[in-house]
Amino acid sequence: MKLVITMSRRFGTGASIIATELSKRLDIPVYDKAYIEEQLNDRMYESEAEAIRKLAEHPCIILGRCASDILKDKMNVLNIFVCADKEDRIRRIMEKENLDYNGAKERVETTDEERASYYYEHTGKTWGDVNDYHMILDTSELGVENCANILMQYFEKLEYI
């Protein structure tokens, strides 16, 4: 399998759970903001874009960091956007971060705004535009636990795995 998966997501959708499950099943690494920033701090790469291009030379899952846009010209890349109803995301963050409703709501809204700004600043595009992704997964409708199964069936059908 030579597939690179980019996964953009709204905050609180459970995308990191999906990525972790796919990583186990496909036996490929997941790279997130912390990992990529560590590579930059260690002076392994000049920029996030350079780090992402280098990481994408091998099968992997990249969470966020505008990877879908950075890798848009590569043939072996599947760009996924994970969304969910706002109320579901708030409840998930309340549980995950032990926050009350208002604290979780503020965290969801602030993080979404930061991600949208970051994406626009680095790509000039609107974050979450369906035209920039091959697949949209709604964890409110599909369930976080089902999304990895859906993706695995898709990969098998297209003979990626």
From TrEMBL:
SUPFAM superfamilies: P-loop containing nucleoside triphosphate hydrolases. Pfam families: Cytidylate_kin2 (PF13189). InterPro entries: P-loop_NTPase. This is Cytidylate kinase. It comes from [Ruminococcus] torques ATCC 27756.
